[in-house]
């Protein structure tokens, strides 16, 4: 088993054992401080550079997907739309970041057109092979191209489907299962929004 995947499974078990039902406890799995946060040095759907460091003071919610995805990815974006609506005015302090696992087809223009159907505020990221590989490796993202001969798309991409949530300091704080509900995600984000940044 991939070492990174083993760590996440272990963390999830510990989280289930230790967490109760307090309103101030996370539904997602907390990441220990000694696990490094890999930055994003990628390009958004408007051709502008994006990095975690440039988003200090914001909560960043990330997911790895692709625009040709038939099920999990569109369901994720719909869930994000629900979360954004539930956050109300607080949503202005949250960045929803969709990182492609299919850079061959997901150009900035393709990402822009796709994400606009869900929210004009969602951010789509792509980049060159090296930059994307660094991010995939940093978060244990597994991606596998699968040819579909009867499909007009030609192929699909099997990939890790989890949420990655970063706090106001840019540190990776939580990982959430893909079946996390919009209500649970909103709950976790609101806890992080309450936190104060130490000067």
Uncertain runs are 9-21
Oligomerization state of this entry?
Answer: single chain
Number of helices: 5
Strands, count? 10
Radius of gyration over C-alpha positions, nearest whole angstrom: 16 Å
Briefly note the CATH topology name: Glutaredoxin
Topology:
Layout: H1 3-18, E1 29-30, E2 42-44, E3 49-50, E4 59-65, H2 72-87, E5 94-100, H3 108-116, E6 123-126, H4 129-138, E7 143-147, E8 155-159, E9 162-166, E10 172-177, H5 182-194
Parallel strand pairs: 4-5, 5-6
Antiparallel strand pairs: 1-10, 2-3, 2-6, 4-9, 7-8, 9-10
Task: Please provide a written account of the structure.
The protein has one domain (3-194): Glutaredoxin. It contains five helices and ten strands. The chain starts with a helix and ends in a 5-residue tail after the last helix. Strands 1-10-9-4-5-6-2-3 form an eight-stranded mixed sheet. It is α+β, with helices and mostly antiparallel strands and 199 residues long. A hairpin with a 7-residue loop joins strand 7 (143-147) and strand 8.
